[in-house]
Specification:
The complex is a heterodimer of chains A (410) and B (276).
Chain A (H helix, E strand, L loop, with lengths): L1 H11 L10 E2 L2 E5 L5 H15 L2 H15 L5 E3 L1 H7 L3 E6 L9 H14 L4 E6 L3 H13 L2 E7 H6 L1 H9 L3 E5 L6 H14 L4 E4 L9 H9 L1 H14 L5 E5 L4 H7 L9 E9 L10 H4 L1 E5 L1 E6 L24 H9 L3 E6 H15 L5 H13 L8 E6 L7 H7 L5
Parallel strand pairs in A: 4-14, 5-6, 5-8, 6-7, 9-10, 9-14, 10-13
Antiparallel strand pairs in A: 1-2, 2-12, 3-4, 11-12
Helix pairs in contact in A: 1-11, 3-5, 5-6, 5-10, 6-8, 10-12, 11-12, 15-16
Chain B lengths: L2 H12 L3 E7 L8 H10 L5 E4 L10 H12 L4 H12 L7 E5 L1 H7 L1 H11 L3 E4 L8 H8 L4 E6 L5 H10 L4 E4 L12 H12 L6 E4 L5 H8 L4 E4 L1 H4 L12 H18 L9
Parallel strand pairs in B: 1-2, 1-8, 2-3, 3-4, 4-5, 5-6, 6-7, 7-8
Helix pairs in contact in B: 2-4, 2-12, 4-6, 5-6, 6-7, 10-12
The chains are: A alpha/beta (410), B alpha/beta (276).
């Protein structure tokens, strides 16, 4: 089985798509001001060099094994499977990683790249704070200066993660422009990068942004899908029938999906945040209800108004509260290789409680969107079929949000 | 010859450098913009740069971000901006107008529809901040078919190869971003700018304008000594917040700031510009 997993590794790491300018069909690319074109090219060259460098990869594997705690388990949720009465449900336990989510897979990789490139300062953006914590964590470990940009409103909503980042030695900068949330934090991080590009490495947390970020973050997150594929073959002697993952920017979903792209019999569902419902306009579902446009350095599906201004999104889950989505998802949607659906805040909250009570696992509100779709999908499948759902993060960070929605003080 | 090329030819003939003020259209309210454009032209602007408001102005510093937010309170759209230019043209047929903004509003309108409407309104050039030449083929074609000048940025990080590539698709003038950073940043190093402008002239025959970080008349005069055009944005727009209660004073106040720059630039005797 080890040899089989190895063969998948090398295939998944090939840079077939995007093309050399970062295009996934009409999506992706590099839509940035001229000042960033040189640094992005420098990053692409460094990334491609180290992608094929055995020493770099060995160091990354060591970090993933002994610092992050990989491979993450693939858990057969038998009790939940029986309750739903359909396909066998397997949870890919990214919630058990160090820092409690899949985000660290990517920050470990990019931080390693930053040190190879001789950068001494790390910046990042964060919405819910998970990527900020994962970035501050690796910066602390490597002794690098770290600045995290976070929307002023998110800083209030996610106070425990702000404190975590500060404990780790990061400076957390409140972004007060625009809608004071994740998209504005990303704008501000880009402004910092363009100003301090000589010594600064920008660790983007999702599979969006200008090339090479969507490809690079995907490749660092693809460890999720490579492991899941090998684990399913080992456990069940066959591939899963369906993959399910939540999609905000889309890094946990692309990490699970990408190593299965060539397995055309495996169906893929990306689950977006329908918020109060797609028909209310208060949601964060650009693939389900948006249009293609250009934001944050790439062409992709966006939430925008008739004038092309980016509109504010809504989701109970701060990590999905983003008006864009990674360009590879836009491409997978258009080609039909993956399907994109949505669930509401209410459905996600129900799934949050279900998994907690039925399996004793408190999922992140982001991951709860994927779980909510599984509750709809599993009963339509046969018991000899299987679903792998990415449990991308743990829900401890969300207990205050959930309690507050239910009128409780924690 | 486009209005922009014509204007640079006139300036060259008289040994003067172009002064290009930037203001955000619709800031702080739509009625201010057209009178302000006329006032800036009267105060010595050679070309006007009009910012198209965008919700996520990634390349702009706090001053222009705030201007975009003020303009968007009134939902100032790309169509509204074109209407402002059309109105401006009823009284000024000569001063070139360049739109500066981000790609998404143009994407939404459609490249050809936009180019046609812009030309009809009297726009002369279009600078799309987040559109490098690698992605610009279709928009450049649409602009050129309406004889609009596609204007591109060069930066301190641009290699010689990129200068060639950009020079091959650009017309009107080259906009050199004088610093690594966003609009309105400080720490302009005039001698570094001079070195880079000289390098750029080795790659293009187009006039070279310099912007980002020119804060006062003194800096404008220093840059005018080495470039063909001086672009000032944040130094003007930063005056708007103090005038929110008296919007009828915005035109005179900003025009006075510009006139001071004009005077400082013209006080320095220039060689005939070396561009062209």
């Amino acid at each position: 089985m080890a040899t089989q997993a190895k063969a998948v590794d090398s295939q998944a790491l090939r840079l077939d798509l995007p093309d050399e300018n970062g295009h996934f069909g009409p999506y992706g690319g590099r839509f940035v001001a001229e000042t960033l074109m040189g640094p992005l090219e420098e990053l692409r060259l460094a990334y491609e060099k180290y992608l094929g460098d055995p020493e770099f990869q060995a160091e990354l594997d060591q970090d993933l094994a002994h610092y992050v705690g990989r491979p993450s388990p693939l858990y057969h949720a038998e009790r939940w499977t029986r309750k739903l009465g359909g396909a066998q449900i397997y949870l890919k336990r990214e919630d058990l990683n160090h820092t409690g989510a899949h985000k660290v897979n990517n920050t470990v990789g990019q931080a390693l790249l930053a040190t190879r490139m001789g950068k001494t300062r790390i910046i990042g953006e964060t919405g819910a704070g998970q990527h900020g914590v994962a970035t501050a964590t690796v910066a602390a470990r490597l002794g690098l200066e770290c600045v995290i940009y976070m929307g002023a409103d998110d800083i209030i909503r996610q106070a425990p993660n702000v404190y975590r980042m500060r404990l780790l030695g990061a400076e957390v900068v409140a972004v007060k422009s625009g809608s004071r949330t994740l998209k504005d934090a990303l704008n501000e991080a880009m402004r910092d990068w363009v100003t301090n590009v000589d010594n600064t490495f920008y660790i983007i947390g999702t599979v969006a942004g200008p090339h090479p970020y969507p490809a690079m973050v995907r490749d660092f997150q693809a460890v999720i899908g490579r492991e899941a594929r090998a684990q399913m073959l080992e456990r069940t002697n066959k591939l899963p029938d369906v993959l399910v993952a939540c999609v905000g920017g889309g890094s946990n979903a692309i990490g699970l999906f990408h190593p299965f792209l060539a397995d055309t019999e495996v169906e893929m569902y990306g689950v977006e945040a329908a918020g109060d419902g797609l028909d209310t306009g208060h949601h964060a579902a650009p693939l389900c209800a948006g249009k293609p446009g250009v934001l944050h350095g790439n062409r992709t599906y966006l939430m925008e108004d008739a004038d092309g201004q980016i509109i504010e999104t809504h989701s109970v889950s701060a990590g999905l509260d983003y008006p864009g989505v990674g360009p590879e998802h836009a491409w997978l949607k258009d080609t039909g290789r993956a399907r994109y659906v949505s669930v509401t805040d209410q459905q996600a909250l129900q799934a949050f409680h279900d998994l907690t009570r039925i399996e004793g696992i408190i999922p992140a509100l982001e991951s709860s969107h994927a779980l909510a779709y599984v509750t709809q999908l599993a009963p339509t499948l046969r018991p000899d079929q299987s679903i792998v759902v990415n449990l991308s993060g743990r829900g401890d960070k969300d207990i205050n949000t959930v309690a507050k929605l239910e009128g409780l003080e924690v | 010859m486009s209005r922009i090329a014509g204007r640079f030819a006139e300036l060259r003939a008289t040994g003067r450098k172009a002064l290009i003020p930037f203001v955000t259209a619709g800031d702080p309210e739509p009625g201010v913009t057209v009178p302000l454009m006329h006032a800036l032209a009267a105060a010595g602007a050679d070309i006007l740069e009009l910012g198209v408001p965008f919700s996520d102005p990634m390349a702009d510093g706090p001053v222009i971000q705030a201007a975009c937010e003020r303009a968007l309170i009134h939902h100032t759209s790309l169509r509204n901006v074109l209407e402002m230019v059309r109105e401006f043209r009823t009284r000024d047929a000569d001063t070139p107008v360049v739109l500066m903004g981000y790609l998404n509003p143009i994407e939404v309108m459609g490249y050809e529809t936009f180019a046609h409407a812009a030309a009809k309104a009297g726009v002369d050039g279009v600078l799309t901040v987040d559109l490098p030449p690698e992605e610009a083929h279709d928009l450049v074609q649409a602009l050129q078919s309406e004889t609009l000048d596609p204007i591109f940025l060069l930066s301190p990080t641009s290699s010689g190869a990129r200068m060639d590539r950009i020079s091959a698709v650009a017309s009107g003038f080259i906009y050199y971003v004088s610093i690594k950073g966003v609009t309105g940043s400080s720490q302009l190093d005039v001698s570094a700018v001079a070195t880079k402008v000289t390098e750029i002239r080795g790659h293009t025959g187009l006039p070279v304008g310099v912007g980002f970080g020119i804060r006062d008349a003194e800096a404008a005069a220093q840059v005018a000594a080495v470039a063909d055009a001086v672009v000032v944005g944040s130094a003007l727009v930063s005056r708007v917040p103090e005038l929110l209660a008296t919007p009828d004073r915005i035109s005179e106040t900003l025009a006075a700031v510009l006139a001071e720059m004009r005077a400082a630039m013209d006080a320095v005797p220039h060689q005939a510009a070396s561009a062209g």
